Amino acid sequence: MASMTVTKIPALKDNFMYLVMCNATRKAAVVDPVEPDRVLEVVREQECKLNQVLTTHHHWDHAGGNEALHKRFLENTDWGELVVYGGNDDRIAQLTNRVKQDDTFEIGQLRVRCLSTPCHTTSHICYYIESDQDRAVFTGDTLFLAGCGRFFEGTAQQMYDALIGQLSTLPDETHVYCGHEYALQNLRFGHLVEPDNEDIRAMLERAQETDLEGRRALVPSTIGQEKRINVFMRVREAAVQAFAGKTTPVETMQAVRAAKDKM
Question: Looking at 32, 58, 120, 161, which residue is catalytic?
Answer without folding.
Answer: 120
